[in-house]
Each structure stands twice: as C-alpha cells, then as structure tokens.
Amino acid sequence: MVVLLRSNPNEKQLENLVHWLESRNIEVHPTVGASQTILGLIGDTSTLDIDLIRALDIVEDVVRIQEPYKNANRKFHPDDTVVTVGGKNSTPTKIGGGNFAMIAGPCSVESEAQICDVAAAVKTAGATMLRGGAFKPRTSPYAFQGMRAEGIRLLLEAQEKTGLPIVTEIMDADQLPLFEDVDMIQVGARNMQNFELLKKLGHTDKPILLKRGLSSTIEELLMSAEYIMAGGNQNVVLCERGIRTFETVTRNTLDIAAVPVLHGRTHLPVVIDPSHATGVARLVAPLSLAATAAGADGLIIEVHNDPAHALCDGPQSLTPDAFAALSKQVDALRGAMATV
Fold first, then answer.
1. What pLDDT, in 10s, does the model give residues 214-230?
2. Residue from 196, 187, 237, 241 nearest 214 by CA
3. pTM for the structure as a whole
C-alpha cells in the first residue's frame, strides 16, 4: 500500500500516523520527493481502513498495490482449489480443478412427490448435485416463502433415494442447526454482504456456495468470500448469477466475463446460474454452453417437473427432458474442448 501525502505535511500529524501504522506491525518507508512525500507500507495492510487514512488532513490519497483479500487470492494459492461436496450420506462430488459440477433441481421444494421425482430425473440426466429451496427470499412478503424445515426434511428424503448431495439456501445464522445434514449451504445474492452470517459460516466445515449480489462488483464478491475463509472455512464456491443493469429484456445480465476474470484473481471454483441470470427458460441452454466454453467449473440450473404450475420461478425452469438434452450438449462441448 502507498500513502500519498499533501505538500508540506504537518510534522506532528505525520509522526502520529507513522507511529500508529508501526503499532499495527506495518513497516513504513518514506520517500521524500521535490513536491510530494510518499509512504510505502509493507506488511499485512488488509486490516487497515483506507477511508480512515484517506480522511486525515495530511493525506492526499491511498493506493493499494495488492488486493485486500488474502485467503481467496490466487497470488497466495496458485493451484486451483477443489471443493468436495457430500460423502456423509451421499455420493461425494468435486468442484474445481477440472471437476465439473451439474447442479439441478427446483427453485423451491413444494412436495415430497415433486422433489423426489425431479431428483430422480436430474440424476438420470447426469446431475451431480440436487438443488432446492427450503427457505425462499422473495421480493413480495405475500409470495411463497418456502416450506422451511419441512423443505429440508424432504430434500434429505430425496437425497436418501438418489444419493445426490444437496445444496439449499440459508437465510439467517439462527437456522444453522437445521442444516446439519445439508451437504452444501448456499448464500443467496441478497445475503452476499450479510457479514455476520458469513462470519458464522466461516466457523463451519460445510462447503459454501456464495452467490454474487445483484449490484456487487467482483472485488466485493471476493471480499465476501474472504469473510468466510478468514473464519477458517476454505471450502467456498463462487456463483455468478447475473447482475442488475439498465437492460430489461432479461431478468438480469449474465456476466460471462466474470468466469475468466475470477479464475485469474482467485483459486476458488466458479459456477454459473443461467436460470436466475435470465429468468427465461429458452435462454438457459445457450448461456449454459457459453459459460461452459468460458471455463466455468459447473452450472446450477432450475428444473421443475411442471414449470407452468411451479410456486416459484416457473418461467425460468427447464423440464426434466430439456435438462437431459442440455446435459448431453454440455458433455459434448466439454469433450470437444478437451481435445483442443
């Protein structure tokens, strides 16, 4: 980190700043130029509050030379992280490092027959994990909010019948006891910056699927991952699910570029959610193929056995047959890419 000082800084204030930085185990290396003094800071500057330093009268600007995220940074962990999901009561599956995950299932769990039928269908079609919402964050308080604890029980029943690891969304840290047998915990877009929740998840040993916020930058996504990893949980998978732009033709705008950008900056696996990105079922397949070609480590796709009567997000859900066709296309594309 570099601190640029204003011309003729107050000596007492400068002395106080240097003393404070050194008390934080930061080495301070001043460079005095003809018109400006620069402080070069060496050490773990990730804990420093840039805005606090920048607000000082003697400071003109602060520039980070290194990203503030350490655990998620590829510079400190050059090899791809491989996250293993399942294994306790399900067939383990790997994500990252060349391992591709096909995660599929309904937006929300609606009944025993629905979740078990969809689970069996997506497994036959090649899915490696089952998704399904038990707790549903909805814009309207009058919309279906999910079956909650009963929904998790039904997911576990579908897991028992198919062997698929399950991933479902958490809304609040108080719900953690209900997720004891869940294989992977999803943090939704609305909770990406729920830092107290992220801290609690950092103290678990569960793999976490962290979705990008609707209006969040890539660095903000990585800093949210850092919250989890700083607590000791290194099993984080990032999910690009579309961001909010001025475009209204689709529900959100899928940031395909996020895949190679994230792979350049972090060692964590990156999966794509084309269902929430578009909100339109017919667009799921082409964007799934685009994400696969861009190097995504997996896809998370909404599949419902009766989309027209789904209680949540039916318009973006594939039928089991459509998912089976897409799964074959993805396999063919990955096979073709492997021969290049």
1. 999 999 999 999 999 99
2. 241
3. 0.86
